[in-house]
Amino acid sequence: MTDNPAKIRISALERQSLNDAMAHAAKVSQARIGFALSGLSGDLPDAMLYAVTGGKALRAFLALETARLHGINPVSAVGAAAAIECIHAYSLVHDDLPCMDDDELRRGQPTVHKQWDEATAVLAGDGLQALAFELLVQAECAPRAKLNLLMSLSHAAGVRGMVGGQSADIAAETAQLPLDLEDITALQASKTGALISWAALVGPRMAEAEREPLSLYGEALGLAFQIADDLLDHFGDPTIVGKAVGKDAAAGKATFVSLLGPDGAKSRANELVEQACDALSPYGDDAETLKEAARFVIARNH
Ligand code: GRG
Q: I need a labelling partner for 213 at 20 to 30 A (CA). Which of 41, 49, 227, 281 fits?
């Protein structure tokens, strides 16, 4: 995990299959984080590395693939891919804590506070959040593009995005608010959609290009992803999903499945995937791997 990703061979700007592109995104983003932590030892860096290992690396893939679509040198985009995986991993570590979802399993492994302790989990999340911005500062792009990436990531991760959405979710659950479809859509767009949308905009932001097509793609993808997550919580096998399931229904939470029913949720997810794929038409055949990713997001079993 301490390889310098600049030395990892990254294929030129050719399109790869989704499987290969996601495996590659996981490898180079983890290597970049490992390199940033090299020379450190102890529970904290170990817990940070543990937290960024074993996921699908969907967000890193989106960052690298949209950068490829815009002709960005892959080595230049690795910092952004690693940054978004750090923010995502921190959110999962904190979400699993006893004061939030109180989960013991994540990606089929003990959660960070179970493997170490709560203090280490809080600090590993904090360390990953700070590291994300360090990695982004080191990304290779024009100063104005970098400022845009930094500002938009702080919006996506913060009170206007993921943290704000998580807070609204907890408040609604605590007060047993009867959320409707519009409320849930807005809440999830912040809680899970904002990071996915940010990742999908890495390419046009680095290239200072038109953002509209990938903005539409990211929004539809983020919502489809959340509906699929609700369906996995409803129907999924915990040994395959890698975490506890059935928690939303047990807590009486309003979700896309409780509001639309399982069949309604599946057809809404299918519509969103179609919308996401349509948004990519300006990119032609070169966007086929991003289309595959949209179809994967609702077909996945973990
Ligand atoms: C605690 C600040 C803070 C925020 C938490 C995103 C979030 C907000 C909590 C995660 C809760 C959760 C499981 C939401 C469902 C969507 C989601 C982020 C699923 C996990 O993402 P994947 O499937 O994970 O991309 P992997 O393991 O593949 O990286």
A: 227
Q: Are 50 and 115 in contact (CB under 8 A)?
A: yes
Domains recognised in the chain with CATH numbers: 5-299 (1.10.600.10)
Averaged over successive runs of 10 residues, the pLDDT of the chain (302 residues) comes to 43 79 97 97 98 97 97 94 98 97 96 98 98 95 96 98 96 87 95 98 97 98 95 84 77 87 94 98 95 93 74
C-alpha 130/C-alpha 295 separation (Å) is 33
**Any residues with Cβ below 6 Å from ligand 1, and which?**
55-56, 58, 88, 91-92, 94-95, 100, 107, 162-163, 166, 191-192, 229
The per-type count for the chain, helices as H runs and strands as E runs, is 16, 2
Is residue 159 a contact partner of residue 134, using CB atoms and an 8 Å limit? no
Q: What is the pTM of this model?
A: 0.93
